[in-house]
Amino acid sequence: MYNMKPTLLILAAGMGSRYGGDKQVDGFGPHNETILEYSIFDAIQAGFGKVVFIVREEILDLAKSLFVEKLSGRVEVDFVVQSLNSYLPVEFCNPDRKKPYGTAHALLCAKDAVNEPFAVINADDFYGREAFLALGRFLSQSASPDLHCMVGYAIQNVLSSYGSVSRGVCDYGSDGNLRGMIERTAISRLDSGAIVHEADGEYVEIPEGTAVSMNCWGFHPSVFAETQRLWHEFLASKGMELKSEFYIPTVVNTLIEEQKAAVKILEGGKTWFGVTYAEDRPIVTSALRELHESGIYPEKLF
User: Fold this and answer.
1) Residue 119 falls within a domain, yes or no?
2) 20: in domain
3) How do residues 81-107 score in pLDDT, each as one tens digit?
4) For strand 262-266 and strand 147-154, is the pairing parallel, antiparallel, or unpaired?
5) Where is the Nucleotidyl transferase domain positioned along the sequence (predicted)?
6) Residue 32 maps to a domain
7) Is residue 50 part of a domain?
8) What total number of domains does the chain contain?
């Protein structure tokens, strides 16, 4: 029997190569709050009962020092380490590999820490309170082994002014269910105003209003077994490549294609901002300050 208070799983093991540092634990709020603290605050308000941080070994102690005492008595807290060897058969261990295996591998690393319906988010994205309210309702009432969800965001609201971004561009039907998505890794707005993906000789225009994934998911814990199955398939085909990545959208697309699960696109993607580049920092800092000044958030979150 599941504890119907959902869990929040925070992906905080990324390298931050384009930002130039560990943005997951960098302070952006008026009292040096990290972006993920706003997600935790909103999730608690939306009825989540547990937070699981997925981190690299190098920042585990720092993450614990930042969050354990601060969240004590407010929400249950756990930490999971995503290493290059996590869930990796010995025959695929590659000493030359430096890059993490990606978001679906991070998800798999939390397999033994999560037993209830759960949300998955990035540590460095601000998703807005509406997103967590929508996730909390769905995960408490509707999640089942063959029904998951995601919060969709309009493409024009999730770009950076300082370079290209990677987004999962969604295809969906009139029933509000996801049909599939394509991971576009170099999306930007041209001077003409057009939003385009340009990479490896490919040029694709993306209409405004198109829903994209910002890695804001809701899953039944049945997804772990499927992720582990697909992880082994990924390793068999790409496991020895130094920069190959195993993405959550890959898992989701496969479950839809195999008709093993449906994924409902939830309304709730009203507000987003995030940090991809160092130049994004003052924009995020200013936006958070305005949210405090307008009373959306208290002077101090915790």
Assistant:
1) yes
2) yes
3) 999 999 999 999 888 988 889 999 999
4) parallel
5) 10-226
6) yes
7) yes
8) 1
Residue 131: domain span:
7-152+213-293
Residue-level pLDDT at 17:
39
Distance in angstroms (rounded) separating the CA atoms of residues 183 and 213:
9
| Cα torsion through 257, 262, 268, 271, rounded to 10 | -20
Q: Tell me the three-class secondary structure of the chain, residue by residue.
A: CCCCCCEEEEECCCCCCCCCCCHHHCCCCCCCCCHHHHHHHHHHHCCCCEEEEEECHHHHHHHHHHHHHHHCCCCEEEEEECCCCCCCCHHHCCCCCCCCCCHHHHHHHCCCCCCCCEEEEECCEECCHHHHHHHHHHHHHCCECCEEEEEEEEHHHCCCCCCCEEEEEEEECCCCEEEEEEEEEEEEECCCCCEEEEECCEEEECCCCCEEEEEEEEECCCHHHHHHHHHHHHHHHHCCCCCCCCCHHHHHHHHHHCCCCEEEEECCCCCCEECCCHHHHHHHHHHHHHHHHCCCCCCCCC
Look up the CATH number of the domain holding residue 79: 3.90.550.10
- Give the global pTM: 0.90
248 vs 285: CA distance, rounded Å: 29
Residue among 105, 81, 101, 55 at smallest CA distance from 240: 101
Both structure tokens of 208:
């405004």
**Which of 223, 224, 225 lies closest to 256, judged by CA?**
223
Q: Supply 109's token pair.
A: 């690393």
> In this structure, what are the phi and psi dihedrals at residue 282, rounded to the nearest 5 degrees?
-65, -30
